[in-house]
Amino acid sequence: MASVLFWDIDGTLLTTERAGMLAWNDAVREVTGREFDLRTGIRTSGFTDYQIAVRTFEVLGLQPATGEIDRLVRRYEERLPASLPLRNGRVLDNVREILEALAGERPDVRSYLLTGNTPGGARAKLTHFGLVDLLSEGAFSVDTRPRADIARRALDLARRAGPVAEDQVVVIGDTPHDIECAAAIGARTLAVATGGYSLDELQRHRPWRLFASLPSPDEFIALIDTLAPAAAPAGQGA
Ligand SMILES: [Mg+2]
Q1: Which domains does the chain have, with CATH numbers?
Q2: What is the whole-number distance in angstroms between the Cα of residue 35 and the centre of ligand 1?
Q3: CA 129 to ligand 1 centroid distance, Å
Q4: pTM of the model
């Protein structure tokens, strides 16, 4: 049985310092012919890319034609790799160290993405920041359905890959939406205030654990291990 970790991307693994918004604004201009500024238009953190696309059309007072939401998302994905180097984004503290420690030493702790990014958007970000070899599988925003739907697909994916210790499933995220989607699949949330929400705001949604930023790999792994039943002492057993 494995523990399963579901990782959010923006504000949890990394920050693009809003480089994604540049790609979004350009894609909106190309698809609708209208000027748009995602920085002032919508609160984006915690929302899926498809939900942001729907909201973008609403804010512009436009009714999207058939396929237009998909087209906006595709153009955003295509523009993203060129936008990411325009801002000083970075991998957040301890992320790389935790993922490397888990990848090397802990086959009994499996990590997946659980993200409101589209598959292409997630891949562009993880590739740009050098995390794609550590984490690439998971569930993404593929339609306008809510984040809880992405969470259910992520859990299905983890179960298909092997036995899951159902009481050792943890969503790691930076917004109340992450906490809500974890609750929707009966998972715990390890919340970090490294995105758009403060410690106080996150605490109101009662995550399992709450940190200002991700702890050291040792502390992180020790925390995950508190969920597993204590191993039999060495030398004991049948
Ligand atoms: Mg996030």
Answers
A1: 2-15+89-225 (3.40.50.1000), 19-86 (1.10.150)
A2: 26
A3: 16
A4: 0.94
